[in-house]
Specification:
The complex is a heterodimer of chains A (364) and B (501). Chain A has 11 helices and 17 strands. Chain A is of the alpha+beta class. In chain A, the strands form 4 sheets. In chain A, strands 13-10-12-11-15-16-14-17 form an 8-stranded antiparallel sheet. Chain A has a 5-stranded antiparallel sheet with strand order 3-4-8-6-7. Classes of the chains: A alpha+beta (364), B alpha+beta (501).
Chain lengths: 364, 501
């Protein structure tokens, strides 16, 4: 059946052709995350035509879709059956695709409670550098047959192959939600978040910025109601709360907007991923905290090395998300034994180095 | 208790004896005398794991006590080109820890310390040899627990759980090992220190931890694991629902999920299994039922009350012939006791049983059970079924007598047919027990030659000399050719626009 699929055949031809002349291909879905990571390089390899939901079984909690399927279309489809992607994938613009979502591996506000994108990838069909169609994982929840290559594709930024189709675990949307707001400083906010997360509370998302802690509860109506009464704070009206969490998810909040002049002046947007219990980070600039303290966005003019050292000392790592100049590297490099494994994996899946050259690490 | 080829007789060739002496002498530079076992009577206890039908005598067994000793063992074995098979409690069910006749079995049982429990960050850092249940016991004082609960949780170690990506009865709601592990520290095959994941929620670069989890000890040696701890729910209640036929029990499972309910546990037992379990534990199961569903709700008292009411409504509408809700914790545990003792109970009615572990899409359950019934007649062997219905993971237990060579052969063919049928129905040959050596042939059916070759390339990316637990999980091309079954094509369907809902 695969051999008869004209869209797949075209991709196979392009990959073979590029491989034969040492060419570089830039795998593109909606292009909404082109700003993230290192700069794309090579001729665009468009996955848009590889679109459509292949199978959706609400009672199996699984949806299988082709890479070029718009994320908005997939989320709308599962929404009609009261289901959702629990990790709340960000949409940085209209037209983002399912393949791009998986390749970037980014998760939204619910990450700390609902798990990451990679936790919901059940299976992937990909085209590797030899243009072989390979399927790993499957459409079932539990599967330990062989290495979990499908989950490595999550957050791989396309360096191992073209994601063609992906099966995702979906879950019922929460029956009730409530958003509470508290005035407090960073230290108090982190203290409260840590205390709450150790209790059986229906926490769903959290943020702290400019002296305000915002908390989302989600779950059974009884649990949300009880938690709202226990935790106090000021309840935010549902429509306003929804706007808040979507703005945060999609970086539409003004904190994430760095204008040309700000970028020119050397201001950068950093994402720092640390253990939730890490103490407040001592950095110049302004901050937006998410994930119960585990994700800390910084707008800062401090040198990259200062951000990276601070993140490392706190047990985490730093990603340079927006900057006029990413010479310092967008992503933190893993230690050498791990880099060696990275290079071998790249060699195994993309020996000619066709895909997304330099997108993850400049020399990779 | 499983059917398999006979173990290799411990008759030493001169080459093997010489190699044994060479490897043991090299290891003596790194370990005290008593931490190196070579005599057959000392190594016999390590000949197999929980899959006792596969046995092999290890060349040497080492029992290091410190991380630097493990590192030294790996460096020595690496320089000698000697295979290393890491081993925890040896409770695995697929022969993943089966020794290599020319390899060192690296017992990590002495690494049994809980290094840190962080009740604020809800994490624990534990050594690889810590038992699964010991983590929850140590965390209980903080109102926390470690969620994955494989049925061997009293004995199995976290290092083994990482190797197998172990599940349990609460996976649907709380996830597998992979969803509850933050970081793994250990050594590469050459003894380099390595850390996968981190204390944060992600790590830079490719997600190598996803590969290590479930890799059956073939990519790295796990020494230390950072696990996520979960706040203990205040309350749990279990519904026991009877059904007159398996189809309506299967439909009830789909109905519950379709109503947006994710039970804490959702288990199905067929009639024969129910009878066997009832005889063993006297849980009060309905012996008239063709199938029994155990459906659990946990959370706050209000939450559980709300959910149990919804579950009861769905189960009734789906045709449950009898419904009983646990009154208290004692009764809840009683409901579960039969399910949790399904394996030993089956051992009571048959000299041997072989436990299968495939996963299928839930909607194919009734079809699968009918197919198993037909196979049971075809191979003239009894089979009882327990099913993690929430996540589609099926455990048929084929009852047989290993002393009867013909029964044993029929049992093996029966098992292989179940696995192949599972792949044909869109499932997988192993949901939580791993491939080990037991399901090597079935991997030929599930994966194409190119897919298996890429898996080997993944192994070589971590372990270029193929020294860590070689021969497990990925069958060779030759083996698949000899097995002679075609790979079942999975993956992309052409014409996705056609409705297949």
């Amino acid at each position: 059946m695969i051999a008869t699929d004209p869209v797949l055949l075209r991709l196979i031809d392009r990959i073979r052709e590029a491989g034969s002349r040492q060419g570089a291909l830039d795998i593109r879905g909606g292009g909404t995350k082109a700003f993230y990571g290192e700069a794309p390089c090579g001729e665009p390899l468009d996955t848009a035509e590889l679109a459509g939901i292949s199978v959706y079984e609400p009672s199996e909690l699984v949806i299988t879709a082709r890479a070029g399927t718009p994320l908005a279309e997939l989320e709308a489809e599962i929404g009609t059956r009261g289901q959702c992607l629990p990790f709340e994938p960000p949409r940085f613009g209209a037209g983002g695709t399912v393949g791009g979502m998986v390749a970037a591996g980014l998760s939204g506000p619910a990450r700390a409670s609902a798990g990451a994108l990679r936790d919901h990838v059940l299976g992937v069909t990909l085209l590797d550098g030899r243009a072989d169609v390979l399927t790993f994982g499957g459409q079932v929840m539990k599967n330990v047959a062989g290495y979990d290559v499908s989950r490595v594709m999550a957050g791989s930024w396309g360096v191992l192959g073209v994601i063609c189709e992906v099966s995702l675990k979906v879950l019922p949307a929460a029956r009730a939600t409530a958003t509470l707001s508290f005035e407090c400083d960073e230290r108090q906010a982190l203290g409260r978040l840590h205390a709450w997360s150790a209790q059986a509370l229906p926490l769903s998302a959290s943020s702290w910025h400019a002296g305000r802690l915002t908390l989302r509860l989600a779950g059974a109506a009884a649990a949300v109601g009880a938690a709202r009464n226990t935790l106090g704070g000021v309840e935010i009206a549902p429509a306003m709360a929804e706007t808040w969490w979507v703005a945060l998810r999609d970086h539409r909040h003004e904190f994430f907007h760095l204008g040309a002049s700000e970028l020119e002046s050397g201001e950068c947007l950093w994402r720092i991923s640390v253990p939730a219990v890490a103490a407040p980070l001592d950095l110049p600039g302004s901050q937006f905290i998410e994930w119960g303290g585990a994700q800390r966005w910084w707008r800062s003019r401090a040198p990259a090395v200062e951000l990276r050292d601070t993140a490392t000392r706190a047990g985490g790592h730093a990603t340079l998300v927006r900057a006029a100049d990413k010479a310092a590297g967008a992503f933190t490099r893993p230690a050498e034994p791990l880099m060696r494994i990275h290079r071998s994996l790249k060699q195994a899946f993309d020996p000619a180095g066709v895909f997304n050259r330099g997108r993850l690490y400049a020399d990779f | 208790m499983n059917a398999a080829p006979p173990s290799i007789a411990p008759v030493d060739s001169p080459q093997r004896a010489a190699r044994q002496a060479e490897v043991a002498a090299a290891l003596a530079a790194a370990l005290p005398h008593e931490a190196i076992l070579v005599r057959h009577e000392d190594t016999a206890a390590y000949e197999c794991d929980g899959l006792t039908a596969y046995k092999a005598s290890p060349l040497v067994v080492v029992l290091p006590e410190t991380a630097s000793q493990v590192q030294a063992v790996l460096r020595i074995c690496h320089s000698l080109g000697c295979p290393v098979v890491a081993r925890g409690a040896g409770t695995g069910l697929s022969g993943g820890a089966l020794p290599h006749r020319f390899g060192v079995t690296l017992s990590l049982a002495k690494f049994n310390k809980i290094l840190e429990i962080d009740p604020v960050g809800c994490t624990a850092v534990v050594q690889c040899g810590v038992r699964n249940l010991a983590i929850s016991e140590a965390a209980a004082v903080h109102g926390l627990y470690y969620a994955p609960d494989p049925s061997s949780q009293i004995a199995c170690t976290i290092g083994g759980n990482v190797a197998e990506n172990s599940g349990g009865v609460h996976c649907l709601k709380y996830g597998l090992t992979a969803h509850n592990v933050r970081g793994v520290r250990g050594f590469t095959v050459s003894g380099d220190e390595v850390a996968f994941g981190s204390g944060a929620l992600d790590a830079p670069g490719l997600d190598l931890m996803s590969l290590v989890l479930g890799s059956e000890g073939m990519l790295a040696v796990t020494m230390e694991v950072t696990v996520k701890l979960t706040p203990k729910p205040q309350l749990a209640r279990c519904i026991m629902a009877s059904f007159r036929d398996v189809e309506s029990a299967g439909a009830a499972v789909a109905d519950i999920i379709a109503q947006g309910i994710i039970p804490a546990g959702l288990e199905l037992m067929d009639q024969l299994m129910t009878a066997v379990a009832e005889d063993f534990v006297h849980a009060g199961y309905d012996l008239e039922a063709a199938a029994i569903l155990l459906c659990e709700s946990d959370g706050t008292a209000d939450e559980v009350a709300e959910e149990v009411e919804r579950m009861t409504r769905v189960l009734t509408a789906s045709g449950a012939s009898r419904i009983e809700v646990s009154r208290d914790e004692a009764q809840r545990l009683k409901f579960w006791s039969g399910r949790k003792n399904a394996f030993p109970a089956s051992g009571g009615i048959s000299p041997d049983y072989m436990c299968m572990d495939s996963t299928i899409p839930r909607k194919r359950l009734a079809e699968m059970l009918r197919a198993i019934e037909a196979m049971s007649r075809k191979y003239a062997l009894r089979c009882v079924n327990v099913f993690h219905a929430g996540d589609g993971n099926l455990h048929p237990l084929i009852l047989f007598d290993a002393n009867d060579p013909d029964e044993m052969r029929r049992c093996e063919r029966f098992g292989a047919e179940i696995l192949e049928t599972s792949v044909h129905l869109g499932g997988t040959v192993t949901g939580e027990h791993g491939v080990g050596v037991e399901k090597l042939n079935s991997m030929c059916v599930q994966f194409s030659p190119a897919e298996r070759e890429r898996m080997m390339a993944v192994k070589r990316a971590f372990d270029p000399g193929e020294l860590l637990n070689p021969g497990k999980v990925i069958p060779t091309l030759q083996r698949c050719a000899e097995y002679g079954k075609m790979h079942v094509h999975r993956g992309m369907l052409a014409f996705p626009e056609l409705p297949r809902f």
